[in-house]
Write a structure and sequence with these properties.
This protein has helices at 21-33, 44-51, 72-81, 100-108, 121-160, 164-179, 278-314, 367-385, 390-402, 488-501, 506-516, and strands at residues 13-17, 37-41, 60-64, 90-94, 113-116, 183-188, 194-199, 207-208, 229-235, 252-258, 266-271, 326-333, 342-351, 354-365, 410-418, 423-429, 435-437, 443-445, 463-466, 472-476, 525-532. It is an alpha+beta fold. The strands form 4 sheets. The protein has a 6-stranded antiparallel sheet, covered by helices on one side. Strand 1, helix 1 and strand 2 (37-41) form a beta-alpha-beta unit. Helix 7 (278-314) runs parallel beside helix 8. The radius of gyration is 38 Å and the shape is elongated. The model has no long low-confidence stretch (mean pLDDT 86).
């Protein structure tokens, strides 16, 4: 029974190295009649040059053992040590070196097979076919292993992306690298915008395709339909699918994936001739599904972060009081969408002893820190309305923190504006010093402070600062001025100088501080500014 020729047995480009023209003619004719292309070389140096030719790389080399400039054994060794040709199979051919020791030496020095002349045509062709079959299977396995490594790195990059644009860019570049082709990625980001990135080839940066991009409705008739999972389908040139390589014709392979019913699909589009084998189709499917999973994770994070921010804001005052003798303004800038919510808070309460202002920060960035912040703020407000002095409020808040199972600490600065006594009473539990600007423009930081909350230590009596009409007060959280690599003392000096040169209006003062210290998105920022009329 004749076995049909397999893909691994297709004709190849064969390099024939032999100094004897008659031998080259006989062997070359046999190979050409079987469909192979043959390139000839008359000595070892010419054979090595042709073996490393990048424009016409051979798939197998037949080398005569006896050559005029070097032995076939040396040619084989040089081929095997050169990184450009190390995987090239070599078959030794000889009419004189035919002993067992000769054949053993040839195989030990790198040859993949050894034939002795005269060679039957069938034996020659069968040996070449078997060598090609093994070599091509090995190269295919090595290529798949390399692609799987690229797939793994791309997947890690997808799940590290912090935005839909970064995700689409990573997916396009990763697909182009894995499948060695152009690639387009189209998806709908968590805000509902269509994002389209295209990479025109492996190793090239993906670029965003400007609007108008491909509408997601173009994929409505895809085989995936409204299902969940991933599927690949061919699309002819009449489909309005994207083309990263600039070609407007040709068949495209369109892979769609979604992880939840009702979600818009994630699309990855490549030339159809790059996904011919089942392994290549599986790679495209995996890439598309990994992109959809990473997008779903981004969408879930956005939803959870938005919910956490709403909860965090619910712990803050709905509005500031409107005292007759003090103008107030506040700014609260939460950390970026990529950071955990924090425990920064502020409070302003009118009491019988005067207006009480406070800014604090619970240690940590998590929903739990925000919940502790809410309990502290409500307790502070209750103690203030109950008539307790600032230092007494700090002492009582120690007990509130002590009721938590987790070890928590917080910083808190409380300022009581007592117009009757003409003083500011400042109780600072390890917080950023408040800044006071007097009516004459003299500005200073109030460095007096006690221990932060949560240590169970006693709090000293509040410091008293003379209060006059026109006095201005600014309280901030550390997210405004603290930066990695910046000395805190220098940052405090900059804060004092900014307040000293800032406008008198509390609203304008808050804006000036945010302009001088743009939030870096890594921490919440709270600013409370007051001016005594």
């Amino acid at each position: 029974m004749t076995i049909p020729r397999q893909p691994d047995e297709r004709p190849a480009l064969v390099l024939l190295v032999d100094d004897n023209p008659t031998n080259r003619y006989v062997l070359g004719t046999t190979l050409r009649r079987a469909g192979h292309q043959v390139v000839e070389a008359a000595d070892g140096h010419e054979g090595l040059a042709r073996a490393a030719d990048p424009d016409a790389p051979p798939e197998v080399v037949l080398v005569d053992v006896r050559l005029p400039d070097m032995t076939g054994f040396e040619v084989c060794e040089r081929i095997k040590v050169d990184p450009r040709t190390a995987s090239l199979p070599v078959i030794h051919v000889s009419a004189s070196a035919i002993s067992a020791s000769d054949r053993t030496q040839g195989l030990n020095r790198g040859a993949d097979a050894y034939l002795t002349e005269p060679i039957a045509p069938g034996e020659l062709l069968a040996t070449v076919t078997a060598t090609l079959r093994y070599t091509r299977a090995r190269r295919r396995a090595e290529s798949l292993a390399r692609r799987l490594g690229l797939l793994n790195r791309t997947t890690l990059g997808l799940h590290s992306a912090l935005s839909a644009a970064a995700l689409a860019r990573t997916a396009a570049e990763g697909t182009a690298a894995v499948l060695e082709c152009s690639a387009d990625v189209v998806l709908r980001d968590p805000e509902g915008r269509v994002t389209h990135f295209a990479a025109s080839g492996p190793g090239l940066p993906a670029e965003e395709v400007p609007a108008p991009s491909v509408p997601m409705e173009v994929f409505a008739e895809h085989v995936l339909g409204g299902g969940v999972g991933a599927a690949v389908e061919s699309a002819d040139a009449t489909w309005p699918v994207p083309y990263a390589d600039g070609r407007r014709g040709g068949v495209r392979a369109v892979a769609l994936a979604r992880t939840k019913p009702g979600r818009p699909p994630t699309a990855v589009v490549v030339p159809a001739d790059t996904v011919v084998t089942p392994a290549e189709t599986d790679l495209l499917t995996q890439l598309t599904h990994a992109t959809a999973l990473a997008l779903e994770a981004l969408r879930s994070y956005d939803e959870e972060h938005a919910l956490a921010l709403r909860l965090q804001r619910s712990f803050l005052p709905e509005a500031l009081p409107c005292p007759k003798s003090v103008d107030l303004a506040v700014r609260y800038d939460p950390a970026s969408r990529y950071a955990e919510i924090g425990g920064d808070f502020y409070e302003a309460v009118e009491t019988d002893d005067g207006l009480l202002l406070a800014v604090g920060d619970v240690a940590g960035h998590s929903l739990e820190a925000a919940m502790v912040m809410g309990r502290l703020r409500h307790a502070l407000r209750a103690y203030a309305l109950d008539g307790h002095a600032p230092d007494q409020i700090q002492t009582r808040l120690e007990k509130v923190l002590g009721t938590d199972h987790a070890v928590r600490s917080a910083t808190l600065c409380i300022v009581q504006v007592d117009r009757t006594a003409g003083v500011l009473r400042v109780s600072n539990a390890g917080h950023i010093p408040p800044v006071v600007r007097g009516p004459g423009g003299h500005t200073r930081l109030l460095h007096e402070h006690g221990p932060l909350l949560g240590l169970g230590l006693p709090h000293p009596p509040p410091a008293e600062v003379p209060l006059a009409a026109g006095t201005e007060l600014v309280l901030v959280t550390d997210g405004l001025i603290e930066r990695r690599g910046v000395d805190l003392d220098a940052a405090l000096v900059s804060l004092r100088e900014t307040v000293a040169s800032g406008p008198a209006c509390p609203d304008a003062m808050c804006d000036a501080l945010l302009a001088a210290f743009p939030p870096d998105g890594k921490d919440d920022v709270a600013i409370l500014a007051a001016r005594v009329r």
